[in-house]
Amino acid sequence: MYVNLTPQSTGGSLLTGARAYARWKWLAGGLAVLFLITYPLLNGQDAFGLNLLTETLIFALFALSLDLLLGYTGLVSFGHATYFGLGAYSAGILTAQLKNSNFLLGLLMGVLVAGLGALVLGFFSIRTSGIYFLMLTLAFSQMCYALAFKWNDVTGGSNGLPVPKPEFSLVGWQLDLGDGTVFYFVVLTCFLAGFFGLRQVVHSPFGRTLIGIRDNEKRLAALGYQTSNFKLMACVIAGALGGLAGALNAYHNGFVSANEFYWTTSGLVMVMVLLGGKGSLIGAVLGAFFVRYAEQFIQGQQTAKLGTFVVSERWQMVLGLIFILCVLLAPGGLVGLWQSLVRQVTRRLEWR
Amino acid sequence: MAVEALKVSGVEKRFGALVAVNGINLSVLQGERRALIGPNGAGKTTFFNLISGTLPLSAGTIQLWGRDVTRLPDWRRVRLGLARTFQRNNLFMSLTTFENVQLAVQRQQQVSYNLLRSARSFQAINEQAQQVLEQVGLTGRGELKVASLSYGEQRQLEIALALATKPSILLLDEPTAGMSLAETGQMVELVKSLPAALTLLIVEHDMDVVFALSDRITVLHYGQVLAEGTPEEVQHNPRVREVYLGEGE
Fold first, then answer.
1. N or C terminus of chain A: which is more exposed, having fewer CB within 10 Å?
2. Are B67 and B131 within one domain?
3. What is the Cα–Cα distance from B112 to A233, expressed in whole angstroms?
4. Which range marks the domain in which residue B130 is found?
5. Which of residues 12-31 of A touch B (CB under 8 A)?
């Protein structure tokens, strides 16, 4: 009855590309998970490498939680360290000050306190948007930093808080968390649960709504949505997951310091998400891996020099340069770069 | 006697010293096709924004189906049956056509807070979304990203989103703006095909479209009602001819 003005065929080729890409994604994802599971079994002696991988997974989880706000909901939070810090201090204070060494309780406290913190802070910050949201979240995290830095009796102040080794026991099942491999698998489990949990969330009706808020919040309201509820829920989920990462990091390092709250922590995780590709869960993970491993690689180049600079001592500068290049040349991050590559390859193949 | 769907009394909107809407009274009955016309700057779009709740009013009251909604936010008015389209296409650009409609339908079917199931797996939503796409003539375009739809198709999707909320009153803000002649014809057919019980309020510049669609016309001028009546009455109203229809003739 109504004439379609563009030919149907353009849609067809776009779709085949998308399907091929989806198949690729499952294959690559399966291989990545297989790699993560077998890594400690194949590299049993490499404590340093395992340590790095554990830390990277914790930061990947942290980056995932930020991506829900930054990439999916379009809320540019520059204070995500708040939830990392709340999680870390919850676990740390429980273990060091309250002398409760229950690991799972520590994680649970981290999740609950950070989620509650996100509920309270989110309540205020979602009333703003854009640069004001950014400044407000930054201000909240710096307030938490000041509090952690000054409140000696509880947080250890500028000395930080040493966190003793926790105990894992669940209905008679004991794990030795002092063993790097065991701790790694606990972190991997949390990471995979967080990843697939978030994946479920972003594909749910709720997740679609968040994307709608990012794309066009006013139109969503014109469809009958009370958007502030959704934004607040996104804040709570992101905060709780950030808290989980923070608590894991506290146990992993055996130490909590006020730096967890500092704006550089927020900045680092934001760089991870943007480098990897915001609005993509894989992107957040890739970004975390890229930043952590590039840092390790560059700091390992003890002999490389640029004039009188020893490159290994200028990691921040190198990361800055990479970040600038990425923003200029690949605004979609690593994932965006990969997608455009796939698109070009499939287009070439179809032309033939 | 027909039920009053929308009643607007003494509505004003001031932007600083500028009075955009200066005391409008309007009553639209159920099933009526009411066109709102007037020269540029007459306050038509501002008036729409006041009715839909996008802008707060400076004075006056608005009633939907006899209920005072003057102070209700836009999303609450949608839930009372009021939907609108926008003058400029106002869609969710990173989603496909089908996903755009799904987003509107999932709110109407109240599953938007569901976190645990895939958005694609709701049979009732998919069926209704498909039905709405069919209604506006976008069958077969569902899998395309909105950005790759033609302009006219994006206008059709605008209407699909509004229809997906199952409105009883629909505000159409220049549905044929920027459309080619052929697309305009399709849009007129589409609006004509809407159920008779649906109350329509249409802002439109194209007088052919206005005469084709409306059974009553309200003429706005400088934020006030200049005239109101059937298309014939308005057409022959000397004051209307002077300020509006006569222009350029």
1. C
2. no
3. 12
4. 92-166
5. 14-15
| Calpha distance A136→A297 (Å, rounded) | 35
- A222: nearest CB among B78, B119, B153: B78
ipTM entry: 0.88
- A65: tokens are 């939680």
pLDDT for A51-110, tens place per residue?
A: 999 999 999 999 999 999 999 999 999 999 999 999 999 999 998 888 888 889 999 999
One domain for residues B130 and B107: yes
Pair (B9, B75) in one structural domain? yes
Between positions 256 and 285 of A, the ones with CB within 8 A of B are: 279
Closest-CA distance of chain B to residue A210, Å = 10
Return d(Cα A17, Cα A8) in angstroms, integer. Answer: 15
> What residues in B contact A210, CB-CB < 8 Å?
none
Q: Tens of pLDDT along A218-252? A: 999 999 999 999 999 999 999 999 999 999 999 99
CB atoms A219 and B111 under 8 Å: no
In chain B, the residue whose alpha carbon lies closest to the alpha carbon of A198 is: B115
Question: Of B166, B181, B212, which residue sits at a domain end?
Answer: B166
